[in-house]
Batch of 2 targets.
Target 1
Amino acid sequence: MSDTTQSTQTSAAGRAGNPLWSSRLAFILAATGSAVGLGNIWKFPYITGENGGGAFVLVYLLCIALVGLPILIAEVMLGRRGRQSPIQTMATLARLDGRSPHWALLGWTGVLAGYLILSFYAVIGGWSMAYVAKAASGDFTGASSDTIGAMFGGLLSDPGTLMLWHSLFMLIVIAIVVRGLKSGMEKAINLLMPLLFLLLLVMVGYAMSTDGFGQAVTFLFLPDFSKLTTEAVLTALGHAFFTLSLASGAMMAYGSFLPKGYSLVSTAATIAIVDTVVALLAGLAIFPLVFANGLEPAAGPGLIFQTLPLAFSNMAFGTLFGTLFFTLLLVAAITSAISMLEPAVEWLEEKKGIGRLKGALLAGGSVWLLGITTVLSFNHWSGLYPLAFIPVFEGKTFFDVFDYLTANIMLPLGGLFMVTYAGWCMKPQALAQALELHPAVLFNSLRFVMRFIAPLLVIIVFINQLI
């Protein structure tokens, strides 16, 4: 039996007891739910503010097109071809393609990256949950910027409150993962993701009425390359991975449930476009409020929690819109978190024979424990720098270390090896069959990008960072 034939049979077989997505739209919405989350609405605005605006945005868009999208295609393709957890998928594909069994390490590092990200992502998701309660109780109504700033500062300085919301968030994620990815997810995402998109448009419409909208557009879309640094380029590249859920095992796991016959390229492009539009809309919703209220765009991780409430405090029906927004932000965070926990649970099921309930409790419980270090990073351990002996981690708390290590090192490196495997280790015939891309010129162009452009850009950024 040829490798290609065997691969096709492996792909067609699927996993016992694990149904496929019911349609291409279901997969797109689920994958978009994984991609669209806190990375777009929480992280993208604040790192854009920290890195000078327009030039950073331009580099970010280039990273999405030339690096993020090809790697997204490769990851989903590998997942659909292997039909198992990321770890088992890479081990299986390495055997099918006659490659070293060490390629299984790529699956391991992806699952580990998702595990580390989820440990601090759950804490930030807890912030969203806390702000649902604050918005619903009317705490934002008529509040000044100083009051809202003090509200956020008070949340971060209280480890007990942070632990409560962190724990509730992880309990919700674990409870959903226990039921399986498909059960209940498709219907919820079909409703909630369009609502999130609509609410962002409402927020942009409100932002257009403020005095800071013109300044925000200039800040976001007029590049000032004097503000662009090597670290900013690495941050843009890292966020392209973070926001698309690349190299964290999530897209490979979701791809394993994707039926044959759906175009990988157009599906991945749709996910990338929607994800990027949401990020840009978030910037257009937030930065006008920043400038109109005289706030600092480089405010850091608390940017969204200190600026959006200002809009709700002055809007008609601000309590309603604020509650809806943070509820939907919370749901987006949960759908992303599910996709990061699922690969570890899948592996425990497949390799260790552990039931889904026990596997979700084990994986989710250990993530919760690790998340305590992030909780304490904002208060009692705010002056503790665990890896200060390494220059790049000097002055970084546990939260900063996990954020930098995953977004700037693990995800780009994982993506580099992933696209390298697709472009160099798979035979052209197997890759063509897996991608189902016609005409041949399109396939050859994408394979060229996978083999040369995407890997080269990642390597250049790493070399510059080392220098």
Target 2
Amino acid sequence: MAQADLLVDLFKSASSGDQLTFRKIAEALIQEEKRKGHRILADRLTKALRPDSAGANRSIAPKTNGGNGHQRELIYEITPERALDSLVLPEKIRDQIKEIVEEQHRAELLHAYSLRARNRVLLAGPPGNGKTTLAEVLAFELMYPLVVVRYETLVGSYLGETSSRLKNLLDYVRTQRCVLFFDEFETLGKERGDMHETGEIKRVVSSLLLQIDELPDYVVVVAASNHPELLDRAVWRRFQLRLELPMPSRRQLSRHIEAIGLRCRTNFGYTPETLAKHMLGLNFAEVEEFCLGIVRRAMLDKKTDDARTITKGKLEQWRDRLKPASNIEGME
């Protein structure tokens, strides 16, 4: 039965209260998504069909892939749980991520016109500004697993070992729809003209570039780098979308702080704008660490309804990391 017919029958059974038919059709839809390779979507539909799914706690622990031992050594797989709307991003970057998602979701239409969906994204910028989180968000929006490369097992000490492992890794990811994430990409993609690098590293870079070119467009490669100036020039050309994540503005920090307060149900005692003013210059990760420190203390002291005193104390502890001009005593 065509998927459109399944959806119509699903709605009919739901409106008539026929639970048995509803479940049979839902299970048929899940199997259809599995056949298409939409494993994450199929898993989410399966969980939603369970009676206790509404109250179930989602696990945030990394999930090891089900491949053989060699594959488990090279990667670990995460089920993404952060949506695009949960991030504070410049609108330009948000729009470009939405475009990538739309192209992937409508890839068959592009194929009909002999076009491919873009599937290579390079994220650059200072640490702590959301590159890893953005990779997870992209995987969540695509409903793909996030496959993270483990450099400690990928990079070998013997001639040709790294290139061989890299080939095994990329051969594995071809078998599924996924987001393949290379953090600190300069580890593999270094400039080949660097006289301090060995011939082995240069061979790895060449092998990596060729194999990335040959990946199908349903494998979305996301590479993140804190030092993009170290990347080989040919690496830059391989990525169709190159995004720089700058240090957050005061307005972005304010929205980030407000979102944390709402999510954790904690009143920091100061307005998000005031806290953002005194924390300008810190990155998203540092601000989140600061806010969660307040939340933990407020939870333990049962002062989540007004954590002003705790916030002031934490600011005192963070004084050396804040702007020199910050006047904690004069905060309003």
